[in-house]
Amino acid sequence: MLIVALTGGIATGKSVVAKVLRQKGCFVQNADLIAHQLLSPGGQVWSQLVNHFGKSILKEDSSVDRQKLAEIIFSNNDERTYLNHLTHPKILEKVRQTIDQLKKNGSHDIYVTEAALVIESGYYDFYDRIILTHCSPDIQLERLRQRDGITKEQALKKIRSQMPDEKKFPLVHYLIDTSGSLAETIEQTEQVYLCLHQDLILKKLELLN
Questions:
Q1: Which residues pair with 174 in a beta bridge?
Q2: Residue spans of alpha helices (H) in the chain
């Protein structure tokens, strides 16, 4: 099995690429959804989160108010680091469990983690291949503002909290520029998918030698 990470800055088109890869037959696991499960009441990190940030981050039903939590972590580097250190190891643990199960089932040849912070977390060496989505800064800013309904200042704060693309480029294997049309993004993704299949063949040959 080829183990792949799909990463990229916020609002750079990861979900579009993930959808295409899923349609092509890849098993795609969204790290954000894993994090949601971890943060749910009774989840693995819920109590630690409440002990650290206080009950002010909770909604009436005791679920985490993700908007309030985002306001805190995007305004404070130390708090963002705390949250990442709390959740990232557990997300990787879930990823490993999923991969082990897929290998037992033999149902998929390519596994993909869709995660924004693969490189920032330091776990990029775990993956055989890394795909990075990116787009022009102006497009990223406008997409984020429209998607989240936030101000320019709020959007910039979120974007600047992540590692710049230029620092990620040397660590990735495939780039997908989503600045253009949807059709262009899909075409690039399909080309990357073909390359991943070649990489899979090479990995199998290496294991035989």
A1: 131
A2: 14-23, 31-39, 46-53, 66-73, 77-105, 118-121, 137-148, 152-160, 165-168, 182-208
* Residues 125 and 1 sit within 8 Å (Cβ to Cβ): no
The secondary structure of residue 126, as a DSSP letter, is G
pLDDT digits (tens, 9 = 90+) for 113-166: 999 999 998 899 999 999 999 999 999 999 999 999 999 999 998 999 889 999
What is the domain extent for residue 137? 2-208
The predicted structure's pLDDT at residue 181: 96
Spatial separation of the C-alpha atoms in residues 145 and 149, rounded to whole Å: 5
Q: At 116, which amino acid appears?
A: A
Structure tokens at 138: 């102006």
pLDDT, residue 39, reads 87
Measured on CA atoms in the order 112, 186, 173, 131, is the torsion positive or negative?
negative
Structure tokens at 132: 């990075």
The total domain count for the chain is: 1
Rounded to two decimals, what is the model's pTM? 0.90
Residue 74 tokens, joined: 């995007």
**Which CATH number does the domain housing residue 170 bear?**
3.40.50.300
CB neighbour list of residue 14: distance below 8 Å, 6 or more residues apart = 6, 7, 8, 114, 116, 133
> Are residues 140 and 17 in contact, defined by beta-carbon separation less than 8 angstroms?
no
